[in-house]
Design goal:
Order of helices and strands: HHHEEHH
CATH class: Alpha Beta
Shape: globular
Helix content: 25-40%
Structural class: mainly alpha
Distance between the termini: 42 Å
Largest sheet: 2 strands, antiparallel
CATH superfamily: Vitamin B12-dependent methionine synthase, activation domain
């Protein structure tokens, strides 16, 4: 049941991406297969995936969208509840492409932490899989 719910959530997100592109007048003649094979214009990255690895940004997105109003919440580790929920961002620019954020150095983490107004330790916690170094642990 969980796997089916997950697939329905992903399928509906792909459908909404297609519908949004039609509403915006982009690639009107394309079908859902083009969305699945990424031959369409635009991308739908999501926090926690390779292009946006910082799950903590979901908290801002959920506040902005008032997602709790429709019954979708986040755990303290930014997992969505109910579990068969998806979130993402739509970018329609013709040159938008998926990409992967590589390994992050200490200087990049320090800069990112400063821009987010968080400690280096907080940022390292969220981006551990993307670190190019072993963080110092007390």
């Amino acid at each position: 049941m969980k796997a089916l719910a997950d697939r329905f959530a992903e399928a509906f997100a792909a459908y909404l991406h297609q519908q949004s592109r039609r509403d915006w007048g982009i690639d009107e003649a394309r079908g859902i297969d083009d969305v699945h094979h990424e031959t369409h214009r635009g991308i739908r990255p999501a926090f926690g995936y390779p292009a946006c690895p910082d799950h903590s940004e979901k908290f801002k997105l959920f506040d902005l969208l008032d997602a709790r109003e429709i019954g979708i919440t986040l755990t303290e580790s930014a997992a969505m509840m109910p579990a068969a929920s998806v979130s993402g961002l739509y970018f329609a620019h013709p040159r938008a492409r998926y990409f992967t954020v590589g390994r992050l150095g200490e200087d990049q983490i320090a800069s990112y932490a400063k821009r987010k107004g968080q400690s280096i330790e907080q940022v390292e916690r969220w981006l551990t899989p993307n670190l190019a170094y072993e963080p110092a642990r007390c």
